[in-house]
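hey so i finally got around to running both of the ones u sent me last week. sorry it took forever, my laptop kept dying halfway thru and i had to restart like 3 times lol. anyway pasting them below in the order u listed, first the sequence line then the structure token line for each. didnt double check formatting much so if smth looks off just lmk and ill redo it

first one:
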Amino acid sequence: MFDKKATRKPFRRFIAGAAATAALAVASVVAVATPAMAAPGGCPSGQTCLWKDINYTTGGVDWIYFVYTNGANDLRNYQWSFNGTVNDNVSSWYNNGNTEASFIFDNLNFQGQLSYLPIKFGRDNLGNASDRATSAGFRFCLNNPTSAKCV
């Protein structure tokens, strides 16, 4: 005679073992997920960074950059730490902001848009827009160009 209870136990153990193995496999996949990439050159969170040269560098290093929290309506007022003004001397940039898009402009006071970056994006080579930025800022400054935050 065939005993139904005797065949159910090994089958249940098999199913329980298979479920445990599948759960362990899923947990292993989750555990090896890669972390998010850090901003180039250590660009601080909540800010946008501009570099004189392509590939997020200035004078061959990545840690020299111009940073703004809201915006700069006239990049002629800012100097690179080693030589020359930031104005018309920007070839790469990164928006490490947390809430707004960032823009660079061909003219003073956020006029003549050259390039736009969504949050946590960058351009390592501005191409035709290189060495043309005269003002830069988050969307706030585009909408409020006379604000004291955008000077």
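and the second one:
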Amino acid sequence: MPAHIGTFVVCPTAQADTKANPKRANFAYPPDIGNLLKTLNTFLEHFRIHFIFLTRIVKTLLFKMDNLGETIRKLREEKELPLRTVAAFLDIDQAILSKIERGQRNATREQVVKLAEYFKIKESDLLVSWLSDKLVYEVADEQVALKALQVAEEKVKYQKSKSKK
């Protein structure tokens, strides 16, 4: 069982009322965190439900729908950091970082790797966002963009399987 669930609880505890109605559950909120974890564990065991925690959902939305610049800005603002602090870490002018955040300039791969290190997030998450931005920029105006991306995916799979041999 994870040690940290999140900032707030989305799921009440449940105990099955099997005599009256086996499908019905009576919900009661525990008075403290110790009871919460115990009752949550009971709830999970009873219903055998696998939960996706809120942080994963937020992370997925953050990296999949925002462009890299928006992601960087959200990460920076979440930590209440000024542009100059992050720009200094990247060894770039804050005007350049501002343009990256606004989507007016592209970050380099090296900058993306440094940002992942700085914000203590997975490098692959930021790199995926960076690469997907590059792909979208190249194919956005094409009518056959999705088909081309599907073919490209197959080519990448083929190249990987070929290089393993």
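quick thing i noticed on the 2nd:
The beta strands are 13-16, 25-28.
anyway thats it, ttyl
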